[in-house]
Design brief:
The protein is α+β, with helices and mostly antiparallel strands. Helix content is about 30%, strand content about 25%. It contains 20 helices and 37 strands. Helix 3 crosses helix 7.
Amino acid sequence: MARRRFRARLPLAVMAAVAVMGTTTASATGAPAAGPGPDKPTIRYTEYGIPHITASTWEGLGTGYGYAAAKDNICTLADTYLMVDAQRSRYLGPDGRTSPGQNQNTTTNLNSDLYFQRLKDDRVVERLLERPAPDGPEPEVKEAIRGYVQGYNRYLSETGAADISDPACRGAAWVRPITELDVYRHAHAEIIMGSADALLDGLVNATPPGASAAATANPGNPVQPANPAQPVKREKPAETARKIREALAAGRRQNMGSNALAVGAQGVSGGTGMLLANPHFPWQGKNRMWQSHLTIPGKLNVSGASLLGLPAVNIGHNDDVAWSHTVATVAPFGLFDVQVDPLNPTYYLVDGAWERMTSQQVGVDVRNADGTVGRVTRTLWSTRYGPVTTSIQGIALPWVVSAHAVRDVNMNNLRALNTWFHLDQAKDVHEVVNTLETTQGVPFFNTLATDREGNALYADIQAVPNITDAHARSCLTETGKLLFDQPLRLPNIPPISVFDGKRSACDWPDDPNAVAPGLLDPHKQPRLIRSDFVGNANDSPWLANPDQPLGYPRVMGDSAAPRSLRTQELILTAQKRLAGTDGLPGRGFTPENMGQLLFADNSRAADLALNATVTACRNVPFGLVLVDGNLVDVSEACPILAGWKSHDYTADSRGSLLFANYWSLLLNGQGVEKLPWRVPFDPNDPVHTPNSLDTGSSAVRDALARAMVAMRKGGVALDAPLGDTMRITRNGERIPVHGMIGELGVLNVMTPGQVDGKLDITFGSSFVQLVRFTADGPPQASSVLAYSQSANPNSPHYADQTKLFSAGRWVTERFTEEQIAASPVLEVKVLD
């Protein structure tokens, strides 16, 4: 398929006013005219440790990126390379916990190693690297990754593993120089993580019925076989579907998410386009984001953040375009239900004939309790559709009369690297769309963008299984229909396909317009360009803008269905600001009011239900509610909730914690539309319905009473300020954090959880960026990396932006040469 190559850009920023550079002339946008880059990769650090990396080649740029990334996060990166090399059990023991996907500590080191060792044995990444673009990396990508390896290894060589300042890996035997293959394996692991958490354990534990063990070990190895076979029976489709839905909903609540709002010329005050990027990513581990500014004069000038260790900007802006991603409602995998021979369950039926599953022995080294190294091997099974799994998100899929095989749309995807390199150089939203269509590398994200011309783009163009509505109707099993067709709410569960594997015609067909086999035609995927606004908060594409609802195949998500409270809050925030009815001065967005609205931490749930909850509280007879055989006096809660008039989750808000606990118990894992509303959801008014909570509902009273009991058991006062509980620990200092879980309709999502045995933030707002374009002049941007640049507790940039975020403040970006040179803390590192 023909596709565009990297093109030389219009003159962009070059190094100036610094001794390592020559003199340049300013362009019309305020950036210096293009000129030669530095002979050596050069890193200039400005406030908060943000590196501005400049080179004359892609390899040099990668070298600077690799060096700077390793300097900030060598231990996190080394741990990631250990994971994709399937060596965690050897060095850290088989029973430790890890997360190859989006969640925290979702599987064991042993299962993780078996999963990645299988990919190594199958040479999945190596085979992709052998292919030409678009399947394989483009030449510029290869050059940048070659340089990244040099930069990473240079930092490690200069420092030495024994002298690393971060105690997490100082002197560790698993901290080693890396290869280009390590980096590509890491990139591939990021691309497939949309399916890893849900399926990994089931893939490595799948055992035919009648088998006595899923693993064998060398003599003397005390590691016990996982999941020995036990008699099982298959549940009814409705029960299986229910359990899977509930498990996916629970897992989704702990997964990454995001908000993004792209505003066009009609909605910007004093500018032509504006973007809010607000990804909600993990605060620990390999999915941390890291901020940088990358420049090759005349070719590239891009600023923003990337997943740590990927030498490109994933979310950010260049001179002309700003973009962000949000997690989409597309399942990047599908299941195939294959009928097996009851007497020989490794044979399965396709088109009336029996086929034999393929088996492979996968083995990994493990550290025993006595320090010796043993070996665990496991037999893993595959069908023509893909590998066999016996669970999804922890819910059993018994291998009895049939087995379930997995096809992952991203297993053969390294195209995402090409996608991000092209996005980094896009000149307008039309080039963004072209990039998305011609690479189809985005793994499970929406893309939102705005440009200097005043266009706002929403696009859900990505790697999607080629499942048309007609194909789904023809091939879904009974369980599949319950998982795929029904609206699956809270929080935005994607349609999961379970197809009839007895018919080969039910496999995903190839489409001539798609970039790779089994992908949906990108032209059938939704996109919208407007001059007012488009937004997404992890709901399906239907209401990117409520004035122009979108249509698309069901595989992309639901439509005409209730929106999350976070989606409602995002849309209402945009509508009120454009109309000037939100209480702030003027109309239209500015960097100041967009940041103010995000960090106001308003709760849509409180807007809808707080007053009704107070009324219900006051109407409880004698103030007493029976909970688990005990009477609870809820009257104490009434004045606390009544006094919380601001409906916000700022650090000093009182009553907000009580409402959060109450609301979570009231939801009880359901979609918000399932609550006792007097006005139900109306697809003709999806932003304002449902509404009017039933003040006489016993569910409301019970949830409030249970919330009081839970807080008292936890030793938290009912009127405690939010910041007394919502905190992040940095070197023993407990830093207050504002924001709250997304189910409350708070845009600034913060999700608390247990980290190292204490309550901390597990994921939430990470790299937050505001960008405004004007007709001329450089982009105006501000940002904050909520957990700071470094995971190293001995780094000066371990908590500096975290404290900034806590105070609701921003870093004003330095993008032009003049801005960088004017930094009072400017530090220059030339990699000779």
